[in-house]
Amino acid sequence: MTDIRTALVLGATGGIGGEVARQLAARGWKVRALHRNPMALTNRDDRFEWIKGDAMNRQDVIEAADGVQFILHAVNPPGYRNWAELVLPMIDNTITAAQASGARIVLPGTVYNYGPNAFPVLRESSPQEPLTHKGAIRAELERRLQAASSKGIRSLVVRAGDFFGPGSTGNSWFSAGLVKPGKPVRAMFYPGKSGVGHQWAYVPDVARTMVRLIEQEDRLPVFAAFHMQGHWDADGTRMIGAIKRSVGQPAVKVRAFPWWILPLMSPFSEMFREMREMRYLWKEPIRMENASLVTTLGEEPHTPWDEAVKTTLSALHCI
């Protein structure tokens, strides 16, 4: 590595991309952020070097990646729109840029890659046989990274549960299901069954984990993948309880998520179609094992439940 450590972030205005970028900058990294129109951003972080360009344009990504040690690939189409047409071409551009620059690709991973044959405990070696369209695309992303490793192109995948935290978007179950951003918490709509566990991941913890792994580059194989234990809610009550305590309203009503409405709305909304497909992840407990991560880092970064939830609600202007 050079004395000046440089990372390119694709998706710096998103939740996980922005958080990783901020943590890297705080640790002395030079951060380049690719954006289609950076001058139009009203909350632009001036610690980053903003570069005008499009992740769909291969030459833009190659030029932005020149001289960097890492490329964080955290760019996703909002609201699940046009995934098939956009997601795979973008990862191909990033792979080409990494080959040209010698950088390692860092990808935030999910549980969507897995089907029921891998449940209930997900390990890095668990088979990836997804049931859904989106899951198939996520699995293909990783397959292309693994294929690129045969050419010496390095990558790191950190898989985690459903995101919540500052900067989490309307794509997350926390802000699209449990609460309504910008409104006080008067009621909650919980997607899971009573007594069924669920895997959550606090965005700052995920970012901290990625940064710590990035800074142990010499210990990582060409293709590296790690699972985070994150915030494991064993019976579906821990997240609800933390929200109630954070807003100081122990009597907040908890209702079942209205899954019945999604088939009615799906013809008019790609986001609702994708949410409907993900219902299988709420029907049985799915837990991620982090033994490999703990072996590498010694521990997993973990923010206490109440602190993480209260910070998230404040960021969403629900408190």
UniProtKB/TrEMBL annotation:
SUPFAM superfamilies: NAD(P)-binding Rossmann-fold domains
InterPro entries: Epimerase_deHydtase (IPR001509), NAD(P)-bd_dom_sf (IPR036291), NAD(P)-dependent_oxidoreduct (IPR051783)
Matches recorded under Pfam families: Epimerase (PF01370)
Superkingdom as given in the UniProt entry: Bacteria
Domain (NAD-dependent epimerase/dehydratase): residue spans on this chain: 7-219
Protein name, per record: Nucleoside-diphosphate-sugar epimerase
